[in-house]
Amino acid sequence: MSLYTEYLDEIETRKLQGLNPKPIEDGALVEEIIAQIKDTSNEHRKASLEFFIYNTLPGTTSAAGVKAGFLKEIILGNTAVEEISVAFAFELLSHMKGGPSVEVLLDLALGSDAGIASQAADVLKTQVFLYEADTDRLADAHAAGNAVAKDILESYAKAEFFTKLPDIDEEIKVVTYIAAEGDVSTDLLSPGNQAHSRSDRELHGKCMISEEAQVEIQELQKQHPDARVMLVAEKGTMGVGSSRMSGVNNVALWTGKKASPYVPFINIAPIVGGTNGISPIFLTTVGVTGGIGIDLKNWVKKLDANGDTVTDENGDAVLEQTFSIDNGTVLTINTKTRKLYSATGEELVDISSALTPQKVEFIKAGGSYAIVFGKKLQSFAATTLGVEMPAVFAASKEISNEGQGLTAVEKIFNRNAVGVNSDADLHAGSDVRVKVNIVGSQDTTGLMTSQELEAMAATVISPKVDGAYQSGCHTASVWDVKAQRNIPKLMSFMNKFGLITARDPKGEYHAMTDVIHKVLNDITVDDWSVIIGGDSHTRMSKGVAFGADSGTVALALATGEATMPIPESVKVTFKGSLKDHMDFRDVVHATQAQMLKEFGDNVFQGRVIEVHIGTLLADQAFTFTDWTAEMKAKASICISEDATLIESLEIAKSRIQIMIDKGMDNAAKTLQGLIDIADNRIEEIKSGSRPALTPDDNAKYFAEFVVDLDEIIEPMIADPDVNNDDVSKRYTHDTIRPVSYYGGDKTVDLGFVGSCMVHKGDMKIIAQMLKNLEAQGEVKFNAPLVVAPPTYNIVDELKEEGDWAVLQKYAGFEFDDDAPKNDARTEYENILYLERPGCNLCMGNQEKAAKGDTVMATSTRLFQGRVVEDSDEKKGESLLASTPVVVLSTILGRTPNIEEYKAAVDGINLTKFAPPLGKPKAVQY
Predict the structure, then answer these.
(1) What is the rounded distance in angstroms from the CA atom of residue 374 to the CA atom of residue 742?
(2) What 3 state SS string does 532-553 have?
(3) In 267-412, where do the E strands start and end?
(4) Is the separation of the CB atoms in 474 and 442 below 8 Å?
(5) Is CB count within 10 Å lower at the N or C end of the chain?
(6) Residue 713 three-state SS
(7) Mean pLDDT within 448-461
(8) Is there a contact between 574 and 309 (Cβ–Cβ < 8 Å)?
(9) Is the CB of residue 788 less than 8 Å from the CB of residue 753?
(10) Mean pLDDT for all residues in the chain
(11) How far is 186 from 174, CA to CA, in rounded Å?
């Protein structure tokens, strides 16, 4: 059977799903299609032309390479195709976004036929995705006196690829569609259980919100053909939770604009809004596609005659509406005044933050990639020609406040800034390019990242990146048909690109499913690093880490840079002493609760939490930084003491060495390079030449907050509050309750200890609790307990120390790498399940609790439908707590009372934490 016949069979299968033919990425299939185009009598010729022109993926796919080669044949006159003229062939090349298409255009532009060279040059002047091999060719041709090369370079130096684009519309009419009331999570826009289909954009688009919502959006488009649909989070924040490019892609698919007439199902420029604005990661992703994210501010706190906030019986602020955004409300965005207006012309809200000069450039260029690459291309051309580069793009925003010190994140940004015009210290609000040290790609967004890399014609990791890792943790639970189809392909691509990969495409080392955040936390070996990762929980306890969409990850891998404003910071310190029976997870929850009590609003949202963690090692400190994603913070930075940081770096070195010993290092010796960086950093700290990162005494913060450890007297639980009468207050992570609230009688149907929020100490706590309970009599589970260690290193260490044997003794199921599960578990017994290291229930794309269950979990996700879905009779709820609370809840089958809890943890060494004593000397960057 030919590849084309197989493709036709696939098309018929997709028709049954209501889908169009899948875009073609296989060069061998395109070769068959071309042969049928050349054969004028072939019965499939007409369809083959359609597939070739409109259904072949661009960039560096093998299909794009074959397509570009055939278009070159047509342009040179070696092949004649009636339907594809020379002019049309050039037009098709112009939409292929680099890689083989640019190589062909350079061949033609630098060739001997003057007429063809001129046409090729005109197309090249519109292209920005050029890499060193391409620019080297232009530089060499210019040095040799080639006039066409000089003409192209002069155009690049003027940035005509940008200046000749049409300006954005002054007025953009929108019609609103309420996605939900309250926070809209990316799980609603791109559900985790549909992660396998993210790279198939048309198929994945069918999972956005609901079929009913999709129909309603289409109806609005019919009713308002002159308006764009704006997806809205009413009384909430748009795009909270996971960092999903797929969520933005889905919104764009249903409400955005087609990126190219020759590339199917790739839409750009969605418009989204939220009463409380847009989640920072989601807003970045919207910018990647040239979209607009608006902070609507259509609900405000009601004030009394004295100007004080009016509260309800629960102590929550009463909100009142300033303008309506009900479904079908017509509004106008004015990009010149940067205001939002009603249908009658009434000014509603200032939206300047959505239309900064930099964001307007993204909108004009169709996304941020074109701007990033365009600036690089302009700089290259001006340098090559020896001319001054004209100011075309919006100047980098550089804010320097004389006499003001630097926060930790400001120091990191200043140290890693690229292309800064001034020598003065930059403060929050500055918009800068920064070098990226560490990059992480995870497996359910990785296929999209690889597509983004292909689309921007990247073929190898930037040498600026110190280390990058491709994980396998999000698909660790079940090695099903979907995983078997997608993951080896992903690992092969990323391994070839230059990443350290969880799976070896050659099969020479054991497949690792370690949680990505844990690996990134280990391979971050400098506290001044910038880390970009394809997951919202990329929150390292060394350096500053930003969770990002798959596109931003791809850009960081390809360029070794990221562009973003320097965020404001909130300083978090501690006082008092932590009770022996409390876990550090309780400190995390209490931080959120005490902050909300003090400020009323979430001051963490969109900002960096600078937490002064002192003597807490990186593993334990990660529990705090990991949770900051749920606090809606942009990032978190741990301020550690010198000796503690050295100990954390030594642990990191040992774990990297284990990776090397397993055979995971690559030809570039990336992992050994990280050990060398760690050794150098340790020497700097010991010598005093560059101590551990600390802020300046006179740094300026948005807010400063002290957590009172003395107030934490019982375990704290983050409750989704699924039955709150105000739907906007459900699933928010803001409802933090003491365990006594539940009266010791709330049924728990399943417990989960795992994901990135736990470390080795948590596994040892489980073992110790089981031994304690055994001493009191028979150990019996009244609810299932699912345990998923974060990494294989932890499992190995537990085996050496005897704790794994304790867990095995009480386990009714233990993972087997030689025979991994092929199907997701749908029913649970009241036993202990020892699952493979990885995300497991926290991800929700493979394993789930039974519908309607009440789950007590250590994970970070309490979103509706994530860990557990609703049943017809009962709402599923995922309550989040410390490891000892989860374990005891499964033993009892209910929430414990405080006396039962204290007895269960008596004598167990929970995570110790005390505020740092003294103040280390600040170090300059």
Answers:
(1) 57
(2) EECCCCCCCCCCEEEECCHHHH
(3) 267-268, 271-274, 292-295, 299-301, 319-321, 330-334, 339-342, 347-350
(4) yes
(5) N
(6) coil
(7) 89
(8) no
(9) yes
(10) 92
(11) 22
Residues 349, 296 contacting (CB under 8 angstroms): yes
Is residue 382 within 8 Å of residue 389, measured between CB atoms?
A: yes
Say if CB 714 and CB 736 are below 8 A apart: no
CA distance 89 to 324: 49
* CA angle in degrees (0–180, nearest 5) for 878-880-881: 145
Q: Using a pLDDT cut of 70, give the percent of the chain over it.
A: 99
Mean of pLDDT values over 190-205: 86
C-alpha 591/C-alpha 770 separation (Å) is 30
331, 176 contact by CB (below 8 A)? yes
Residues in the chain: 925
865-878: burial string, b at 16+ Cβ within 10 Å, e else: bbbbbeeeeebbbb
pLDDT of residue 15: 94
What's this model's pTM, rounded to 2 decimal places? Answer: 0.85
Look at the block and give the residue holding tokens 């072939």: 42
According to DSSP, the residues that pair with 785 across neighbouring strands are 751, 832
- Please answer whether residues 409 and 540 qualify as being in contact, where contact means their C-beta atoms are separated by less than 8 angstroms: no
Name all contacts of 483-488 with Cβ < 8 Å and 24+ positions apart.
483/196, 486/196, 486/199, 486/443, 486/447, 487/443
Structure tokens that stand for 42 in this block: 């072939």
Instruction: Give 775's contacts (C-beta < 8 A, 6+ positions apart).
Output: none
3-state secondary structure of 64: helix
Q: State the Cα–Cα distance between residues 762 and 764, nearest whole angstrom.
A: 5
